Amino acid sequence: MTAFTLDPRPASAGTAGATLEFRGLRRAFGATMALDGLNLTLNPGEMLALLGPSGCGKTTALRMVAGFETPDSGEVLLDGVDVTGTPAHRRDVGMVFQSYSLFPHLSVTDNVAFGMRMLGTPAARRRARAQELLELVGLPTQGGRYPRQLSGGQQQRVALARALALEPRVLLLDEPLSALDAKVRQSLREEIRRLQLELGITTLFVTHDQEEALSIADRVAVMRDGRLEQCATPEELYNSPATPFVAGFVGTMNRLPGRLSSDGALVDVLGLSRPVQGSLHGRDGTADVDVLVRPEALTVSAAPDGPAQLVAASFLGATTRLTLRLHGGREAVADVPTTHASTLPTGARIRLGLPERPVLIDQARNEETTA
């Protein structure tokens, strides 16, 4: 691939490897606390996904990096320099929006070159640079077209090329794939990850889609009500959630009835005793708790006296998801090999098992039972 640069810069302001840091960011909108003391650091060249439900503060955090929002308190630092009060156009960050935000009256080439034009880059250099970027994002022959002549996925590729045109120190992605259909979304997220790794640019990716976050990010920061719940690798986040909220938000999680031992170190669940992971989240002074278990962690076997009943099976290819009704009417799901699931008829009594490892617990919920 052809290497590209714009005007020479100091080594400290290179394209790749910038450190981005949030220090104690707070921002309230009326009575709503959008950010409540956010502390987070993105390592040089890292892609970090901010994940959480609507209203958790992830977009507010991203807009503070871009310079579109000002915190009530706290700082945003790039390579150790406080840029909290720096105007947006001087922050040296690139941003890709959910809605593409392309200029409809400009050609694809002119859209990509727009920022360079504003900086007074010579026309020949602008065109050459725009063509390099269009090749980079897989649109080498689309430069003469207009946004209305492109598909949604192609428009978002143009928006990405435009964001990269000025070689920003940090790339910001604000739910850039949410307006696309599933197949295009998967293809483009893989392309974004390829480009990010190839360029080595520090990237902050905001999304509410857990699959999106887990599939492409180096680390994922889960937010809730303006606070950071956990920041970890996708594997750690899924396998060792720090809080019940993270456990329930990331992936599918069963809530099985359990009862704590008197010292709170063990919990009885499914007739088995398991150690409790971490602190007793939501114990609320009672011994009755919910035990949080992933579907793939449950083992199932047919047993005439089993405490659960198989009520449905959903074929997923190599695995099958079994829906099981427990005593009292609560349901759970188990993901098992399809070859094993085929031996279990609907209505069969089932015995459940758990691995010999600590389990996460939460305050017991009152759930409606079914007959």
Could you characterize what this model shows?
By secondary structure, this protein is an alpha+beta fold. It is 24% helix and 32% strand. The chain contains 9 helices and 20 strands. The protein has helices at residues 58-66, 108-118, 123-136, 152-164, 182-199, 210-216, 234-239, 244-249, 338-341; strands at 20-29, 32-42, 47-51, 73-78, 81-82, 93-96, 170-174, 202-207, 219-224, 227-232, 254-260, 266-269, 272-275, 288-293, 299-302, 308-315, 319-325, 331-337, 349-353, 360-363. The strands form 4 sheets. A 6-stranded mixed β-sheet has the order 6-7-8-3-9-10, with helices on both faces. A 5-stranded antiparallel β-sheet has the order 13-12-11-14-20. A 5-stranded antiparallel β-sheet has the order 15-19-16-17-18. Helix 2 (108-118) packs across helix 3, helix 2 (108-118) packs parallel to helix 4 (152-164) and helix 3 crosses helix 4 (152-164). The protein is elongated. 36% of the residues are buried. Mean pLDDT is 88; it is low at 1-14.
